[in-house]
Amino acid sequence: MSSVNYAAMSYQELRRYFLTHRDDNAAFQAYLARRRERSLHVITSVNDLDFDSKIQASISQQMAEYQSGNAG
Asked: Are 62 and 41 in contact (CB under 8 A)?
């Protein structure tokens, strides 16, 4: 069995890989770790004066990442 480099995969690639290789425990652990990393990122707080612009920028970034992950 060949070694898979989970760190080189984007979040979307890793997710797709895990969903098609559900018996790969290492992929599952890598996916969970990556998900925890993404979950801890705080964009802004409610009292931030730039709240709207930070939220819009984050949404735009996530959309661009999603679209580049689905491009091919």
From this structure: no
Half-sphere exposure of 45 (CA within 13 A, CB side): 2
Q: Give the dihedral sign, CA 64/69/70/72.
A: positive
| Domain boundaries along the sequence of the chain | 6-69
pLDDT digits (tens, 9 = 90+) for 51-67: 999 999 999 998 998 88
From the list 55, 58, 70, 54, the residue with the least C-alpha distance to 10 is 70
**What pLDDT digit, counting tens, does each position of 3-17 carry?**
899 999 998 999 999
- Only one residue has tokens 């984050």, namely 58
